[in-house]
Amino acid sequence: MNKRLYSPKYVKEIIDKYEFGFSKSLGQNFLIDGNVLNNIIKMGEITKEDLILEIGPGIGTLTEELALNSKKVVAVEIDKNLLPILDETLKAYDNIEIVHGDILKIDIEKLILEKLDGGPIKVVANLPYYITTPIIGKLLEENLNIQSIIVMIQKEVAHRIVAKPNTKDYGALSIFINFYTDPEIILKVPKTVFMPQPKVDSAVVKLNLKEELPNIDRELFFKVVKSAFGKRRKTILNSLSTGELGLEKEIIKNVLEEANIPPNFRAENLKIEDFIKISETLPPLNIY
Ligand code: SAM
Fold first, then answer.
1. Which of 70, 88, 146, 236 would be 50's cystine partner, CB 3.0–4.6 Å?
2. What is the pLDDT along the chain (288 residues), one digit of tens a residue?
3. Model-level pTM?
4. Computed over its alpha carbons, how large is the radius of gyration of the chain?
5. What is the whole-number distance in angstroms between the Cα of residue 159 and the centre of ligand 1?
6. What kind of fold does domain 8-209 have according to CATH?
7. Which of 12, 65, 79, 80 to mutate to test the pocket of ligand 1 (most atoms within 8 A of CB)?
8. What's the gap between Cα 213 and its chain centre?
9. Ligand 1 pocket check: which of 29, 76, 77, 192 to mutate, most ligand atoms within 8 Å of Cβ?
């Protein structure tokens, strides 16, 4: 068994050998803790049958653990300076394929078809904080053959994702994620397990994708949610009639009545089902 990559001493050695400079703008904070890596595998329920897409392998610490515990890993890395490092650190594994590219620009459907047997796949990533939501958004909106998404993100964002109604963290992000998935926080991760150390603590979230989604006009649904939380201190009657929906108060009043939602409720009092009811009851947007 070769020595494992996550040892801080080895990470430092390899960084020095390649004179690698950490890029803050690419969110490069590398994991250097074996326990956290083990827990991601265990709590993320990664098994030997799994086909994995990893986003941002860095120098390969998480990639190595994934390769040891799954069938195949395809890892997409944007930073070309990491490619020679990954060539060296992961050379012992024949079930890893590194793809150079930006996950936000790559055709993920094609990648799953060509390199991961068409899926279903599990996505695993220690995500750069600055693009956490666009990446999760892309993975969920593109109707891909994904079973679960296991991502390390900023602790505060994790709390917003799993937040329940009537709490301060509950908002448009909670609704967006809960529309597509059943999310859970599976691990809390202190900032001390990264090199270099970031300013904030992290958490690993597991998003279990729902097999069936409500058959509704999604564009309208998310417009309603955005409009409601855009003015979260206002009553739902006021936020929906002054927000980007721009509908008359009288129409909103009737819609709320029909959906059985008190007009003096605020966005944070509404469950996802309430937002679904509202968008189902609203007339289609294009008739205005
Ligand atoms: N997985 C490694 C670990 O846990 O130690 C590295 C995680 S580091 C927080 C984020 C990684 O994502 C970096 O290697 C960075 O270069 C890469 N990255 C940043 N933006 C990316 C993008 N748009 N597409 C692919 N990789 C990206």
1. 70
2. 457 899 999 999 999 999 999 999 999 999 999 999 999 999 999 999 999 999 999 999 999 999 999 999 999 999 999 999 999 999 999 999 999 999 999 999 999 999 999 999 999 999 998 899 999 999 999 999 999 999 999 999 999 999 999 999 999 999 999 999 999 999 999 999 999 999 999 999 999 999 999 999 999 999 999 999 998 899 999 999 986 787 889 999 999 999 999 999 999 999 999 999 999 999 776 544
3. 0.95
4. 21
5. 22
6. Rossmann fold (3.40.50)
7. 79
8. 18
9. 77
